Amino acid sequence: MIEHLAVLDVEDDSPESLVLPSGPLTLRKAWPRSKEHLLLEYVDRQGGVVPGQWMRDAGQLLRIADETADKCPNAPPVVVQTDHTRILLQPGGADRRLIGLSALLSRPDSTLLSHRPERRAVVRLHGATDQRYAKVVRPSRVRRVVESAQCLGGWPDRPFGVPEVIEVDESRGVVMFAVLPGVRLHELLDAGERFIDSARAAGKALRSFHSAAPKQAQEHDAQAEIRVLQKWLDDLKAFRPAPYRRLGNAPARVFEALATDSSRPTMIHRDFYDKQIIIDPAGLVGILDLD
Predict the structure, then answer these.
(1) What is the pTM of this model?
(2) Average model confidence (pLDDT) across the chain
(3) Nearest alpha carbon to residue 161 among 178, 180, 187
(4) Range 182-209 burial, b when 16+ CB lie within 10 A, else e
(5) Which among 142, 185, 187, 190 is positioned nearest to 272, based on CA atoms?
């Protein structure tokens, strides 16, 4: 299925070309929601993000397109018909659930960094005097995002930075964050000794993070992790059976090791990787996406 979604060509004279970037769209990410539903992230030739969805049930896809068009009259969604399937594309912040997104993207100082349809989006706002980032979620999720972002705020002498919440619009599902100065660790992969020093600093920050004990932390035990992994394995089997088969009995061994572990509860990030780590000019570490 994925191979049929890999590249979308929009004809210059098609109705879709009025709202979509010209040229081919290349699939960069796909998140399974079920065996019948994928969330998609395409990029255009300039690297601009165009999110979308695929559903096996074409009728359901068209119903979502209609509902999205009603909710976002200034950012219409587009249904593209290919030789194999239909795909709903959602440019300009078209999203029936993320109700604050299209207004943010209508601002001239905005850049869409990521958009997982109906789940979350991140927008960079680069004003004349400062820069900030907006995380857009469903309004019902705003409180959790804010609590997670602030859970480490009371830690005295915290050895790493976290983004400061500077504005909240719960009714529109928007949480605004100040910028952490520096570059992502990912951008330093070719920086030789600076990368090595930065990676060591990130490891020390993570070790300190593991010693935190905020009251708001939700429990995520071995059984919860097994359920997460099993869902991703099921989705992999459905959409990419060849790499699934290559795993062999490795998942069973991992599940057994998780189930028999008896380590004490520890604060964990659960999404800690090189693009979530900021290194400032002095080598100090910042950690993103605490929710």
Answers:
(1) 0.88
(2) 90
(3) 180
(4) bebbeebeeeeeebeebbebbeebbebb
(5) 185
How many Å apart are CA 91 and CA 69, to the nearest integer? 11
DSSP code per residue over 77-141: -EEEE-SS-EEEE-GGG--SS-TTHHHHHTSTTEEEEEEETTTEEEEEEE-SS-EEEEEEE-GGG
What tens digit of pLDDT does each residue of 4-49 get?
888 988 765 555 555 688 789 999 999 999 989 999 999 998 899 9
Beta pairing class for 285-287 and 131-137: unpaired
Gap between the Cα atoms of 1 and 238, Å rounded: 9
Do 279 and 285 meet the contact criterion of CB atoms below 8 Å apart?
yes
Return phi, psi of residue 229, to 5°: -65, -40
Q: Of 93, 102, 86, 100, which Cα lies nearest the Cα of 1?
A: 86
Residue 218 amino acid letter: Q
* CB distance 182 to 278 below 8 Å: yes
Distance CA 119, CA 29 (A): 14
Beta bridge partners of 169: 174
Q: What angle do CA 29, 67, 117 make, to 5 degrees?
A: 20
Q: What angle do CA 177, 180, 182 make, to 5 degrees?
A: 150
Q: Which residue type is seen at 65? A: A
Q: What dihedral angle (degrees, nearest 10) is formed by the CA atoms of 150, 153, 158, 160? A: 40
Would the pLDDT of 54 be above 90?
A: yes
CB 138 within 8 A of CB 157: no
Report the alpha-carbon distance of residue 37 to residue 55 in Å, rounded: 5
> What separation in angstroms does the CA of 224 have from each of 34, 67, 260, 262?
18, 34, 14, 14
